[in-house]
Q: What sequence folds into this?
């Protein structure tokens, strides 16, 4: 059997065992997707000869090693791209509302981590090469490992020309990935342990935290609600509906009018009569002044559609012919005698203004007769098949642009190797940008919307491939022998300190002092370590992963840049102190 089938069998075995392991829970706590990492180590250690998993020789990577490296990186790319698409529509609103606070705490985490690593070096426990390798593994950041290895090579070359024994001085590039492999698995565990400990210490109720997050999100975006208002003021009797404050400005929508026993579909020129009951939809700050001016608030039962020929229905925009068109240009009210009271986009509610341009996947909440709504549905699409179809073109365009973005070198004065966002940061940033601005940038020609089922599949396949191969490579490269016979235990313990101390201290302070939502905090902690498995674990805490994903994506771009820069800065500090 050739190499490819054996490798596929190895990856599948690791994934199956890891998923089963992750489903084991004790008092509601389990490894989740992190179980794939440990099953990968098991498969790599015990079955590497049977599966042909010789990853590295003294001459470099084997064919199997190159294939595994490619699949591992491709899995990571798929995962971070899916995360970016998921959080993109809400990312910038989140950045405005809580970005500065979260990024501030992440900077503290990074500074503490570097301080712990440098302390372990200066007291003689870790050499420079082991320090940056353990640091990169402890923060579970592969681009950091690459940057650190490159700089160790550069320093090794410069010092070698000066006659310095680079190995004794701590500039052996072969030790960097070994130290990384020792610290990485327990780096993941340290992040998960921190989340679990904070949850246990403060007796966090996940459902309460999810509810608080949604409430704060609604407040920051202006929660849309509805009231019934009885028209009693003579200032509005005999006047058109457009005279009601907020209607012309489109802060509010009147979605129906109850007049006697009749339920009317309102329009801007509908003349108001005494004791008409208006069903108004909008943000609370706009509704309360209207109640005081027009009349009084009455029970919502007065405007129910029950017993009338009117219905309320959501119409999903799936017709490519109307995408990018404004609501006004479709003349839905005039053509079909319906009224749209809310527009749902990426889980966020909006008041549908006339100049708002429709996007694929938008949902309009409309009221009218069944016949009129059905006719409008044909114009807008309302096709479940089209809605749940995954468009492949935008995915691969996004991946390609993300890789190009991640490959752009960012020169930094005094640092030999240029910085890069890499294969993790580039696709994430690009996905966030395209999911938010893609339709505008491509003049509505490309549909960037991805159904939740397809998004979930892309995300889970990516992280499973990535984790299983990281574990397989660690197991096949002598993880156990290094752990038991070499400096592996020391590296592992140092890695646990670098992982645990910063995020545990900051986690407690952020939760208690800054009152950061626990689910957002878990995403922030995962993002501060640029750790997809930890994010997957945090996402699994609640059925809606939005809070943790937003916490992760809010800090990830800044974190990635600082994590790539930090080992290079630590090497410079260590070299300056040593006086090379």
A:
């Amino acid at each position: 059997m050739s190499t490819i089938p054996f490798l596929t069998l190895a990856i599948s075995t690791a994934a199956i065992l890891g998923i089963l392991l992750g489903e084991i829970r004790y008092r509601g706590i389990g490894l989740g997707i992190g179980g794939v990492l440990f099953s990968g180590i098991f498969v790599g250690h015990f079955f590497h000869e049977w599966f042909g998993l010789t990853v590295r020789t003294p001459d470099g990577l084997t064919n199997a090693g190159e294939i595994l490296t490619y699949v591992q990186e491709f899995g990571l790319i798929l995962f971070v791209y899916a995360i970016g698409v998921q959080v993109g529509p809400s990312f910038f609103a989140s950045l405005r509302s809580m970005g500065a606070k979260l990024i501030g705490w992440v900077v503290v985490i990074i500074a503490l981590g570097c301080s712990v690593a440098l302390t372990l070096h200066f007291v003689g426990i870790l050499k420079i090469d082991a320090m940056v390798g353990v640091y990169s593994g402890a923060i579970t950041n592969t681009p950091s490992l690459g940057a650190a290895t490159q700089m160790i090579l550069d320093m090794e070359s410069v010092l070698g020309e000066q006659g310095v024994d680079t190995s004794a001085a701590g500039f052996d590039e072969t030790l960097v990935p070994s130290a990384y492999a020792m610290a990485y698995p327990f780096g993941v565990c340290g992040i998960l342990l921190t989340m679990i400990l904070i949850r246990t210490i403060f007796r966090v109720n996940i459902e309460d935290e999810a509810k608080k997050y949604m409430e704060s999100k609604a407040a920051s975006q202006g929660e849309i609600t509805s009231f019934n208002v009885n028209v009693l003021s003579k200032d509005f009797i005999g006047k058109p509906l457009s005279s009601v404050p907020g209607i012309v400005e489109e802060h509010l929508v009147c979605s129906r009018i109850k007049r006697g026993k009749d339920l009317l579909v309102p329009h801007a020129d509908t003349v108001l009569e005494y004791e008409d009951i208006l069903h108004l939809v909008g943000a609370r700050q706009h509704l309360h002044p209207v109640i005081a001016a027009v009349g009084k608030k009455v029970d919502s039962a007065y405007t129910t559609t029950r017993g009338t020929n009117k219905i309320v229905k959501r119409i999903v925009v799936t017709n490519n012919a109307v995408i990018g068109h404004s609501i006004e240009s479709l003349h839905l009210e005039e053509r079909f005698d319906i009224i749209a009271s809310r527009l749902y986009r990426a889980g966020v509610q909006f008041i549908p203004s006339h100049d708002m341009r429709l996007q694929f996947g938008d949902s309009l909440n409309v009221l009218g007769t069944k016949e009129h709504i059905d006719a409008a549905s044909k114009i807008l699409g309302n096709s479940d098949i089209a809605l749940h179809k995954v468009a492949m073109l935008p995915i691969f365009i996004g991946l390609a642009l993300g890789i190009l973005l991640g490959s752009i070198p960012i020169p930094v004065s005094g640092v030999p190797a240029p910085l890069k966002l890499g294969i993790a940061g580039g696709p994430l940033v690009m996905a966030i940008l395209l999911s938010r601005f893609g339709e505008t940038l491509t003049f509505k020609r490309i549909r960037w919307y991805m159904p939740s089922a397809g998004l979930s599949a892309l995300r889970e396949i990516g992280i499973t491939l990535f984790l299983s191969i990281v574990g397989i490579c660690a197991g096949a490269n002598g993880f156990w022998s290094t752990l038991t016979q070499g400096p592996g235990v020391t590296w592992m313990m140092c890695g646990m300190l670098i992982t645990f101390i910063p995020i545990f201290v900051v986690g407690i302070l952020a939760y208690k002092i800054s009152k950061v939502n626990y689910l957002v905090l878990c995403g922030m902690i995962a993002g501060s370590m640029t750790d997809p498995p930890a994010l997957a674990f945090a996402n699994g805490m609640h059925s809606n992963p939005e809070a943790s994903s937003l916490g992760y994506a809010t800090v990830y771009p800044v974190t990635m840049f600082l994590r790539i820069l930090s080992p290079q800065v630590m090497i410079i500090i260590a070299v300056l102190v040593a006086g090379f």
